[in-house]
From TrEMBL:
Pfam families in alphabetical order: DUF1414 (PF07208)
InterPro entries: UPF0352, YejL_sf
Gene3D superfamilies registered for this protein in UniProt: YejL-like
Name the UniProt record assigns to this protein: UPF0352 protein SAMN05216516_105127
């Protein structure tokens, strides 16, 4: 999700690496990883965002996710 952030790249990369490590340690398949991460996003939105802003934030998140997905043939 290329966007300016108040968080340093180093902090983001550190947390991402920790999350990847947990998924790898649990030998989590891709579909389960996506389910877990999706549930985490839903939980964060439902618990940390005021109700009036939740749908707009979810829409913005989904759009940012779609724009960051590559369409190359690599698998």
């Amino acid at each position: 999700m290329p966007q300016s952030s108040r968080y340093s790249d180093e902090r983001v990369e550190k947390i991402l690496a920790e999350l990847v490590q947990i998924l790898e340690q649990n030998q989590t398949p891709t579909d389960l990883s996506l389910m877990v991460l999706g549930n985490m996003v839903t939980n964060l939105i439902n618990t940390d965002i005021p109700p009036a802003q939740r749908r707009a934030l979810a829409r913005s998140f989904a759009e940012a996710l779609q724009s960051s997905v590559r369409e190359d043939k690599a698998h």
